Amino acid sequence: MSWGKIFGLYAGAFVLFTVLLSLSEYWGLVSNRGIAYTYLVVTIGVYALIGVLSRTARPDQYYVAGRGVPAFFNGMATGADWMSAASFISMAGALYATGYDGLAYVSGWTGGYVLLAIYLAPYLRKFGAYTIPDFLALRYGGNAARVVGLLMAIGASFTYLIAQITGVGIIMGRFLGMDFNVGAFVGLAGILVCSMLGGMRAVTWTQVAQYIILILAYITPVAMLSYKHFGIPLPEFTYGQVLQDITQLEVQQGVTKLWVDMAPGGMLNWFALCFCMMVGTAGLPHILMRYYTTPSVKEARSSVGWSLFFIFLLYFTAPSYGAFARWTVLKDVIGKKITELPNWVYRWGDTILGKETNHLGLFDIADKNGDGILQLTDFVIKSTDFVVLATPEIAGLPFVITGLVMAGGLAAALSTADGLLLTISNALSHDLYYKIINPQASIVKRLTTARILLVVAAVAGAYVATFRINIIVAVVAYAFALAGSGFFPALVMGIFWKRANKQGAIAGMAVGFLTALILIVVGRNWGIYILGVKEIGAGVFGVPIGFLVIWAVSLMYPPPDQQTQDLVEEVRYPRGTTMKLAGIE
Amino acid sequence: MASFRDIDKSKREAYWQETSRFTWLILVLWFVSWVGPLVLHYQLNRIVIFGFPLSYWFAGQGSLAIFIVLIVWYAMKMNALDRKYGVAEEA
């Protein structure tokens, strides 16, 4: 049976399962909590099954899925790898809160794939290494570049991993009432069963399965909401009408900065943020390494297209989520009598009109001036995550769809965590252990080490997540500035400029990374900004400085040896093989 | 062992020159596709089509669609260049 048929059947079975579950709900056979647990057990069970079926004892399967993942499925896997708990649960909420200004994330987290397509993916595939530090080591002659790459890969991926595990813990808490720490460790188990036995091969196919669930879960509620109001289940096209209504309602309620407009003087920051997210996307190792897994350069090229297509389906829908939610709040909550509040505010709000209903940490409603009418300031948002969580009920859908959203958020967090965990443990087992510490290690020993390190990294991630350090969410956003400034220039120059050498690359990576880091630290702690650019957009300085330093320092030292120059030349042409030239078995 | 030296030198150079030029073209189009609607934010947002203020629409949806078109175009054109200069992968 072909992969297409298998996953087609799988998607069909999942839809059927959801329909059956909603019938059970309709007939009163299952409670809300029961629905949430059913989704949890069934989806994680499926991922675990794929993980076990994909077990392998071969290094090429473990590290790069045997370079046998077709472009289409690699695109789907990349989509799941890329879209995290933040994309799924939080992005639409951020758009609800910020309007046009938040769209810098939407453009930024998609536009980076163009850079990936034209500068990196096909060339990295031709190069044919196992990890990103591998590429840096072979191109820039030795372990110094490998170690710098290794440290940056682990640093960026580990903070990101903690955020995903935190996401899992929060989701479990909100839907299942589970204690955060228990939730985090259940999530940990869910991550490990997918990746431990089969490495990249298992993670790839699990991510395909997770993508299907997350995209169905994301689009269904808002599509139904669009259908309810406009008779067309395509919110991406119908929300133009909603935008008009929002503007009208805002004008009525005396809002000065319209939602669809930019914050005054915000252009430079919008640019910096968007640029940073784009270059960071093209510099994150867990995304880059996915393009090692396609069978050919040609497939790597089209795979970037599929990746962006599958990511686009969600991102292209996110603005409509934000708009429908804002419209609902402005129309059904604000300006209404306190006796006429819709039901969803009681389900998801914490303290509604003085009555404690939940502890979900989403929003409160209080009639502050006691006139019996809700004003804009009476609706106090604590977390804009309520946008995605409450949309199924706003659309009048059964609780099953809320359970589906939980399964989708979980799939988004777990799939990203899998990719990150693999990046970390591969950097440790392949780059540090095999390439630096013990190059004589047997295949069995290498893979055993890889698996042990995978478990260690996962447990460490979950353990750190239980401290609930507030800074983590901010640090993830900074990871883009850091990865973009540290990795992107060295990778691009390594492929496009033969003259770039070891000294230049190491200096460029270090200075680029440190520039971004220093700007982040001084911006965050003391509010010192260059040209008013907030620290989250620090890459707008770090990236060009990284390029400049590589260029200038390279010219100060002799060009790389003939073998390295041949390697760079070889990478340009899809024909032939690079792996032997580079000494990779 | 297959090596790039098996490919005729003039063909290699022509291939790389055309590739570089095309890469620059995509880069410029990419840049314009998202910076354009940003710089013209105030002008474009006054133009409303099917309810969508145009600058808002580009940042949330339009630019994204252009990104996909650019990547697909790049892949198609590069595959054609591979064949034209005889540097395509052996089937």
Core attributes:
heterodimer; A: 585 residues; mainly alpha; Sodium/glucose cotransporter; two-stranded antiparallel ribbon; 4 strands; 72% helix; globular; B: 91 residues; 3 helices; 73% helix; elongated
Radius of gyration of chain A: 24 Å
How many E-type strands of chain B? Answer: 2
User: Order of strands in the sheet with the most strands of chain A?
Assistant: 1-2
CATH C-level class of chain A: Mainly Alpha
Structural class of chain B: mainly alpha
The number of helical elements of chain A comes to 24
Description:
The complex is a heterodimer of chains A (585) and B (91). Chain A has 585 residues and is mostly helical. Chain A has one domain: Sodium/glucose cotransporter (Up-down Bundle), CATH 1.20.1730. Chain A contains 24 helices and 4 strands. In chain A, helix 8 (143-176) runs antiparallel to helix 18 (399-437) and helix 8 runs parallel beside helix 22 (502-526). The mean pLDDT of chain A is 90. Chain B is mainly alpha-helical. Chain B has one domain. Chain B has 3 helices and 2 strands, in the order ααββα. The chains are: A mainly alpha (585), B mainly alpha (91). At the A-B interface, helix 6, helix 11, helix 12, helix 14 and helix 24 of A face helix 1, strand 1, strand 2 and helix 3 of B.
Please describe the topology of this protein:
The complex is a heterodimer of chains A (585) and B (91).
Chain A: H1 3-26, H2 32-53, H3 59-64, H4 71-82, H5 85-98, H6 103-127, H7 132-139, H8 143-176, H9 180-195, H10 199-230, H11 235-252, H12 267-281, H13 285-288, H14 297-315, H15 318-333, H16 344-348, E1 351-352, E2 355-356, E3 363-365, E4 379-381, H17 386-394, H18 399-437, H19 443-465, H20 471-486, H21 488-496, H22 502-526, H23 539-556, H24 562-572
Antiparallel strand pairs in A: 1-2, 3-4
Helix pairs in contact in A: 1-10, 1-18, 2-9, 2-10, 2-18, 4-10, 4-14, 4-18, 5-15, 5-17, 5-18, 6-12, 6-14, 6-24, 7-8, 8-9, 8-18, 8-19, 8-20, 8-22, 9-18, 9-19, 10-17, 10-18, 11-15, 12-20, 15-17, 17-18, 18-19, 20-22, 20-23, 21-22, 21-23, 22-23
Chain B: H1 9-39, H2 41-44, E1 48-49, E2 52-53, H3 54-84
Helix pairs in contact in B: 1-3
